Amino acid sequence: MLRYLTAGESHGPQLTAIIEGMPSGIPVSADAINRELFRRQQGYGRGGRMKIESDTVEILSGVRWGESIGSPVTLVVKNRDWPNWREKMSPLPEHRDDSHAVTRPRPGHADLSGALKYDHQDARNVLERSSARETAVRVAVGAVAKQFLGAFGIRVGGYVTEVGGVAALTPDMPIEECWSLAEESELFCCDLAVEAEIKGAIDAAKADGDTLGGVVEVQVLGCPPGLGSYVQWDRKLDARLAMALMSIQAIKGVEVGIGFEAARRPGSRVHDEICRDAARPEQGATGAYYHTTNNAGGIEGGMSNGDPILLRAAMKPIPTLYKPLRSVDMRSHEPFEAAVERSDTCAVPAALVVAEAVVALEIANAFLEKFGGDSLGEIRRNYDGYREQVRNA
User: What angle do CA 323, 328, 330 make, to 5 degrees?
Assistant: First the structure.
């Protein structure tokens, strides 16, 4: 089983992740991780924090000479803003200064619920950990998972499909070409014709002290059939992927395949017909079987079916507004405008990178559950035997 934990606060010294269960022999490149961290910091509509931080990873354990060695992998991303917060976020009791307490919780954030749950009088104790800054180290973890999957020909990517109600069209071209097109866009969008309209909407929201959300789509290519299971509710692949995506800050909805559109169509226009052609060149690991459409999004009965996995996640507008909403002071109980923290106008492109990361990690976990092994060579033998079994089915 592949699992990980993250630790650290938004304005603390660093963010840390420990990955347990990574087999030995997997190529792990810090440069590849840093490319993903750089992508996360890009995107039209990002705020001042991204001008301060320039995220890079430090690999502190579990990797030797560019390969995993089977022991826990420790990743660290430093917070460059830490010197400005050294006393405000100090672990030492002598630095305590209650005059800095955040007592006006922000609507849409974890501030109030977290303060009530953990009996805090200062919402700073909540917002530091609940902040989306935590996703930086999750992107680093996902980058390692992408490298693991890449060893077996599985690729994870995506693009933005909507921002602030402005929908982008997906061109009729192979998915990987769409990924390349999106990488050329400040919005990670492959419909360059609507970029100006989306940027205009972001600029208008910023001028008004408001924020915008949107929709991202993630695809997994080369995934073999049979990841996940139908035998127990918590082993279903779509359920696990939905949980991974919903764990991202500000994500409020997830779709698999055509998602909610399936509820609006008759069954004859939803379910993907199955065909078999023994002479058909193999695509992925599905052998002679194939579907004529992919409305299911590559997952049926809680298992991957060999088609591309298609997932969408809806991100709400960031709740930190420069024109703050009404709130109540937790000490005086008087009405006030909510506290303002440095934030973005639109972080949908960044959410795409985080979504790719958590999807990659969950696919890697399901892959290891299916094929097992403590080293790259052992897993490859198991995987090759399964592919041969499927080809001959």
Answer: 125
